[in-house]
Amino acid sequence: MRPISLVVALSSLASAALNTAVRADTFTNPVVYEDFADNDVSKGPDGLFYFSASNMHFSPGAPILRSADLVNWEMIGHSVPTLNFGDNYNLNGGVAYRGGTWASTMRYRESDKTWYWIGCVNFYHSFVYTASSASGPWTQSAEIPTCYYDCGLHIDDDDTMYVVHGNTNVNMAQLSANGLSEVRTEQLFHYPTEAQGIEGNRMYKRNGIYYILNDDGGTQSTFIYKSTSPWGPWTYKRLQANTPGPLPGGGTPHQGSLIEASPDDWYFMSFTWDYPNGRIPVLAPITWGDDDFPILTTVNGKWGATYPSPLPTVETPPWTGTDSFNGTLLGPQWEWNHNPDTSKYSVDNGVTLSAATVTDDLYKARNTLTHRVHGEHPIATIVLDFSNMADGDRCGLAAFRDWTAYIGVVRSGDTYSVVMQEGLTQNSTDWSTVSTGTTVETTAVEKGRIWLRSSMDSRGDGSKLVTFQYSTDGTSFVDLGDAYTMNTDWAIFMGYRWGIFNHATTALGGSVLLESFTQT
Ligand SMILES: *[C@@H]1O[C@H](CO)[C@@H](O)[C@H](O)[C@H]1NC(C)=O
Ligand SMILES: *[C@@H]1O[C@H](CO)[C@@H](O)[C@H](O)[C@H]1NC(C)=O
Questions:
Q1: Which residues form the Beta-xylosidase C-terminal Concanavalin A-like domain (predicted)?
Q2: Could you tell me if the CB of 434 is within 6 A of ligand 2?
């Protein structure tokens, strides 16, 4: 993603920087203008903060971000290397849109120097993945035959592992000493009378008191429970209800994590629902009342657009820039739509995408490489060498979600055309494909190299339009097709992504070379 010289390990920077860095006076929300939902943020053994997020049907699953200051973040890896939860996760015999990883938990356990990630998959069983370093490698260590819905792991001072989970009813599970099975479970409480449900469970301990943080999307509320025992009795307060979020087009942040930034200085990391972009992390300080319940710090009754910085600033590499795919590995910013066919791509100073599926349906094609859109007005440009396409192949750059549009190249016989295709849509009940889209405009191009570009307004209160351009020299870009209106419905949960694809419609055998990706 970034020039090598900038990719300095944050952990080595952190200790030096903490001594010398100047604390920026304030930070601005969102802390990352990208789709990182359902965060579980906690401190690692190195004193840095680790942020686990959901990415549903994208693979690898459960992205991890890291920060020294809660404001500057970088992606470092994933807890779930492969979505091995059924062949539909390989786009074989079905699809797994909106499956995969969601509302899971990740914590470090000091006693065995191990990171644990726990999440319910397919509303069925929960999986435990472990690693000695958050950046991996991670391995699947256990399957627990209970769905820990929206779970939060807490490792107590005596090393006991608790998992709080559930909607409607909140339950407490105690895990075995090795953390890989359940030894006790109890229902703790039903959702509060002023709510319509409850989820997003997280568990903490402060000054010997246990806390459960959770939320209700129906009333846009956040609740906080406390008790002197993990088994209760629990009393609660509403942390907030319907507090306007910091982005004009975004909803009320209500789900998230409590974080102790420095001794007894606490923050709430939540996220605002801001489609087409996605669910975007936002941060606010909290204080504690005399009753030992937390209080959200608001500005004139709303989330602050800015607040005082929690900690000295430690910069991370920029989120935008050019990826020339140096070396032979993809950076953690890249996630595939479902599990990739690893025999059909290679990275070597560029990404060779061999057609992996014969289909006329992009939603069923394997090996679509995706990247989150960044910021309010993201623009992506890819350089593609399509000389090796087979007859019938389609490749391109998509604004990819359950309503999709793209600019691409198609080969028909010895004719190559650039096309703008829109209205590829999915049924948001069963994720079947409703339409493979219609071609709005097409023009012939010479076989060779092409620059494909897409520009979008990703703001929740913006135009929600995405447009497409191409160039044959990398300098002058030509508009193709029309402006496509993106979907802001939440049903698929994930926000829009850039999707880079190559699939066959006749026979496998062709490939394209993705030379670079630039996002500004
Ligand atoms: C790595 O990528 C950067 C940015 O795209 C580029 O400037 C640099 O030359 C590349 N380095 C190598 C060794 O390929
Ligand atoms: C979507 O799928 C559901 C469940 O299979 C079906 O009942 C419904 O008719 C479908 N809707 C459309 C628009 O195809």
A1: 323-507
A2: yes
3-state secondary structure 412-434: ECCEEEEEEEEEEEECCCCCCEE
Encode burial over 252-276: b for 16+ CB neighbours within 10 A, e otherwise: bbbbbbbbebeeeebbbbbbbbbbb
Dihedral-angle region of residue 476 (phi above 0 means left; psi in -120 to 50 means alpha; beta otherwise): beta
Length of the chain: 520
Is ligand 2 within 6 A of the CB of residue 427?
yes
- What is the arithmetic mean of pLDDT over 128-146? 98
CATH code of the domain in which 419 resides: 2.60.120.200
φ/ψ region of 260 (left if φ > 0, alpha if ψ in -120 to 50, else beta) reads beta
The ligand 1 atom at the shortest distance from the C-alpha of residue 349 is 14
The distance of Cα 118 from the centroid of its chain, to the nearest Å, equals 16
One domain, residues 334 and 263: no
What is the rounded distance in angstroms from the CA atom of residue 249 to the CA atom of residue 459?
7
pLDDT tier for residue 24 given thresholds of 50, 70 and 90: confident
Give me the pLDDT at residue 23, please.
65
CB-based contact 503:362 (threshold 8 Å): yes
Residue at which a domain ends, from 273, 308, 343: 308
Specify whether 170 is located in the same domain as 77. Answer: yes
Atom 6 of ligand 1, nearest CA residue: 3
Of the pLDDT bands very low, low, confident and very high (cuts 50, 70, 90), residue 431 is very high
Checking if the pLDDT of 241 tops 50, the result is yes
The answer to whether 323 and 332 are in contact (CB under 8 A) is no
pLDDT band at 304, cuts 50/70/90? Answer: very high
pTM to 2 decimal places: 0.94
- Which residues have any ligand 1 atom within 6 Å of their CB? 3-4, 322, 324, 326, 349
CA distance 370 to 324: 15
The verdict on residue 351 lying in a domain is yes
Give me the pLDDT at residue 6, please.
31
Going from the Cα of 492 to the center of ligand 2, the distance in angstroms, rounded, reads 15
Q: What's the gap in Å between 428 CA and the centre of ligand 2?
A: 8
